[in-house]
Amino acid sequence: MKIIDLSQPLFTGMSVFPGDPEVEINRVHTYEKESWELRQLRMGTHTGTHVDAFSHMHPGMESLDDIPLAHFFGPAEVVDMKQVWPKETGLFFLEEAGLEILPRILAAGPRFVGGELTEDLERALLSKKIITYTGLIHLDELPKGQRFLFYGFPLKIKDGDGSPVRAVAILDD
């Protein structure tokens, strides 16, 4: 078994989408003073490697705490535009994927899609109750067309529109 971490590290001053809250991580307790460490996090829910809830772009649709956990993990593949895509398998794109591929994605029936997605495609996928992941790294380390298990669980944020995730791919040897 091989585990590939697909998550960006979170740190003060990291790049965020224009207009989103800046990331600030401060140490508020130290070993020397309190005998433990504790950090305070300030950031938006769509920081770094993150998942989008259906409610992110569609009022009245399900938020993170309403979406069953089964939507946040499962079999997946890195695919390109030229190949035949697997059915009922998460799809991840290395190249930018736009709205023109929506019919193909819907025909494949994935629970989640990720990678380089345009905003229009994200919006359309979320309206069809397909989870979207963005800010993933190391997708290029995964062999194209080889199935792996993907896990990208969000924090359980009440009425959450999105959440940073620790996204991982698990490959068989």
Automatic annotation (TrEMBL):
UniProt cross-references to Pfam families, sorted A to Z: Cyclase (PF04199)
Keyword line: Hydrolase
Gene Ontology terms for molecular function: hydrolase activity
Enzyme class per UniProt: hydrolase
EC number: 3.5.-.-
Keyword Hydrolase: yes
Entry-linked SUPFAM superfamilies: Putative cyclase
UniProt keyword Hydrolase present: yes
Name by which UniProt lists this protein: Cyclase family protein
Organism: Enterococcus lemanii
